[in-house]
Specification:
156 residues; mainly beta; Beta-clip-like; 4-stranded mixed β-sheet; 3-stranded antiparallel β-sheet; 1 helix; 10 strands; 6% helix
């Protein structure tokens, strides 16, 4: 007898976080409880793709493609990927870490209950004009670029 394919449900929460409307962008990820520094919060999950396939999907508008390395990407647009709701911020409270080939969000600051969980998306500087930032922190330069390139952007 052939097994039916496993269907994964939409994930809207886990032990540490839940999805809710965000003032940064659409939906965001929020702390369910106080999260200590160094805590592994949520996995950025989805089907593994070649880097080339990931770039193709991203160019077609899939905003949830996560580049792991030179060879591999993740299609994070799937319903079970709770990590896809974490928004970019120029002053993030989390970062991505690779553990056993999987991508996780880990807290880099104490995150208070109800606070939005954010990380630096680290998009390339080239083409930054196509990636406006809406995090609204005092150090925001208006575009999603890695911290090491923010000094290149002029402040109004």
């Amino acid at each position: 007898m052939k097994k039916a394919p496993r269907v994964r449900a939409i994930r809207t929460s886990n032990r540490y976080c839940y999805m809710a409307p965000s003032t940064i962008q659409g939906k965001g990820l929020f702390a369910r409880e106080q999260i200590p520094v160094g805590s592994t919060i949520v996995e950025y999950d989805g089907p593994r793709l070649s880097r080339c396939e990931g770039e193709r999907l991203a160019s077609e508008g899939n905003a949830y493609v996560f580049v792991i390395d030179r060879r591999e990407s993740i299609d994070g647009s799937v319903a079970w990927n709770l990590g896809r709701f974490a928004n970019h911020c120029c002053e993030p409270n989390a970062k991505t870490v690779k553990i056993d080939g999987r991508i996780w969000l880990r807290s880099i600051k104490l995150i208070e209950r109800g606070q939005e969980i954010t990380y630096d998306y680290g998009y390339a500087f080239k083409g930054h004009e196509n990636n406006p930032c809406s995090c609204r922190v005092p150090t925001c330069r208006g575009y999603i670029v890695p911290e090491k390139f923010r000094h290149r952007l002029l402040v109004d």
